Amino acid sequence: MPHLHHRGLRIHYEDRGEGRPLLLLHAGTSSCLQWRRYARLLGPGHRLITPDLPGHGGSDPSPEILPDQLLPAALGVLDHLLGHLDLRAPLHLVGHSLGGLIALLYALQRPGRTASLTLFEPVVFELLDRRGPPELAAECHRVAADCLAAVDAGDPEAAQRRFITYWSGPAHWQLLGDQERAHLIEAAPLLHRVGIPATFNAGVTEPALRALTVPTLLLDADRSPAPARAIVDHLAALLPAARRRTIQEAGHMAPITHAPQVAALLRANI
């Protein structure tokens, strides 16, 4: 896997295919590997650039980074990667969960650099805090607090089991391989002390969303947690050029578990 260095961090990425460039950003408990099938599913004529975000997959974590620094640092990594690849034309941005939030921030903060957006359940928790329903906002804060308490008590496995069970269902933790589970446990302190708090204060404002005219496909799944679907509801109401589609009989990890359906909708959007 190729890599580059940015501010002392080793960043891994994959660059597959030729044609229209797509930048695909993975979920917070995943890595760029979640997109490998999409080169085949999307077919020829597409160039897929899939980085491991800092602290994920093969990319180094940022040492002692604070929550309010995490998302700007991720955008800086993307700028450096795209400059390294000499990609200056507008890109098709695809993001899942945390990657969806980062893709949305990129479109908002880098005007003219985005040709289209495809967002699968981006974790824009601020919209729940501002627009409700309050019980769903409280639910997200409660899960985050439970996970942080487990990490602070020295039980990162309990933190990740709680997190994965909430977002992916009760069976998912047991279905993980030993290596996947060990990697998630190792990543728990960064995720719950830095990553999740960052998503609650990302700086996404409603006026900025209303002004974003990039063609946007909003995706969710019918079995996802209610807060994830409510966030997509709010985005659909705020983004002027948004369309919404729902993956049936799927959950929050549908870009992995239902890749052919997601890829077909993505291909139509670009």
Describe the structure.
- The chain is 50% helix and 19% strand.
- With 270 residues, it is an alpha/beta fold.
- The chain has one domain (3-125, 201-269): 3-Layer(aba) Sandwich (Rossmann fold).
- The chain has an eight-stranded mixed beta sheet with strand order 1-2-4-3-5-6-7-8, sandwiched between helices.
- Strand 1 (3-6) and strand 2 form a beta hairpin.
Number of helices: 12
Number of domains: 1
Query: What does the overall shape look like?
Result: globular
- Structural class estimated from helices and strands: alpha/beta
- Can you name the CATH architecture? 3-Layer(aba) Sandwich
Low-confidence stretches: none
Main attributes of the structure:
alpha/beta; 270 residues; eight-stranded mixed beta sheet; 12 helices; 8 strands; Rossmann fold
Describe the structure concisely for a colleague.
The chain is of the alpha/beta class. It has helices at residues 38-42, 67-84, 98-109, 125-131, 134-152, 156-168, 172-175, 178-200, 206-210, 226-238, 254-257, 259-269; strands at residues 3-6, 9-16, 19-25, 45-51, 91-96, 114-120, 216-221, 242-247.
